[in-house]
Design goal:
single chain, alpha/beta, two-stranded parallel sheet
Length: about 300
């Protein structure tokens, strides 16, 4: 019995000996990918179908299914596919060490402007060139995958967001940003940071706290650390001194505020996305004004 969706569709083709199961569509949170939820009544119905078969029917069904697998997925069939691919591929001599080195040193551009290009093909190639700094061509498997996604009605925004995410992760790995490079030089000792990496909803709800934070700490510059895709939610907020890009370093409250010989970068770091079981996020150099009743807010 096979759910008749995605890779399961191939297993439900004529001659496979399978019993297709019905399903309903749902969307994966955030990615909006189409997913299948198999109907319980379909499962129950087909279990009864198998139960009602006599022994000869079951044996015949099993023989058909086994032969279909051998004809399509045996070692000989799949191995031949790879053999033909390798034998017919043009020989190349790659300097893999040089290739890897050049890839690591090439900065990506996650915030690059992508125009509204009518041609899907030209649009995908522009994503590769302008965001990932890669020269791609129509024979590449990545290009073919994205073209198939567009043909299957995957929204352009979803694909573009993925490219930007990959670019940010690449830069974060190969071009890590130092926190001190994000800060003003003339407000040392008067900085505090509110950290909320994601999601857009949590970042938006956090803006309701900024006024009260500034009222409690009028002498401090309030920095907000979040992922760059959320900057537009905070832009123009009169209580925020500066929005800076979140990185995993911001998960360590003690590192932000200073510990031991490390001076730190902020007098107070508010990290509501963490729990006290993970990180002690309530120290703040003893300089916070939040009373016990308000701690739950942060």
């Amino acid at each position: 019995m096979v759910t008749d969706y995605s890779c399961g569709e191939e297993s439900c083709e004529k001659g496979s000996g399978s019993i297709p199961l019905e399903w309903s569509e749902y969307r994966e949170h955030q990615t909006e990918f189409k997913k299948a939820s198999t109907y319980p009544h379909s499962i129950a119905k087909e279990i009864n179908t198998v139960y009602d078969m006599n022994l000869s029917q079951r044996n015949e069904k099993g023989k058909i299914g086994r032969q279909w697998v051998l004809d399509n997925f045996s070692v000989n069939v799949i191995g031949k596919f790879f053999e033909d691919f390798i034998d017919n591929t043009e020989a190349k001599r790659w300097d893999f060490e040089k290739e890897d080195d050049s890839t690591e040193k090439k900065r990506n551009y996650p915030d690059a402007f992508i125009p509204n290009i009518e041609s899907n093909s030209d649009w995908v190639l522009t994503l590769y060139k302008d965001i990932l700094a890669m020269e791609n061509h129509t024979n590449d498997e990545g290009y073919k995958t994205w073209m198939t996604s567009l043909e299957n009605k995957v929204p352009r925004k979803q694909i573009e967001d993925y490219f930007r995410k990959v670019a940010r992760e690449h830069n974060q790995k190969h071009f890590p940003v130092k926190i001190e490079d994000l800060l003003d030089k003339d407000d040392e000792g008067k900085r505090m940071v509110y950290v909320m990496p994601e999601s857009a909803v949590d970042v938006f709800l956090s803006t309701a706290l900024f006024k009260s934070i500034k009222e409690k700490y009028p002498e401090y510059n309030l920095y907000v650390a979040t992922k760059p895709e959320n900057f537009h939610i905070i832009d123009g907020n009169e209580y925020v001194h500066k929005t800076i890009a979140y990185s995993p370093q911001f998960d360590n409250t003690l590192y932000l505020e200073g510990i031991g010989d490390h001076k730190g970068y902020f007098e107070i770091a508010l990290t509501p996305h963490l729990t006290t079981q993970r990180v002690s996020n309530y120290i703040h150099n003893g300089k916070d004004n939040i009373n016990k009743e308000e701690l739950c807010t942060f």
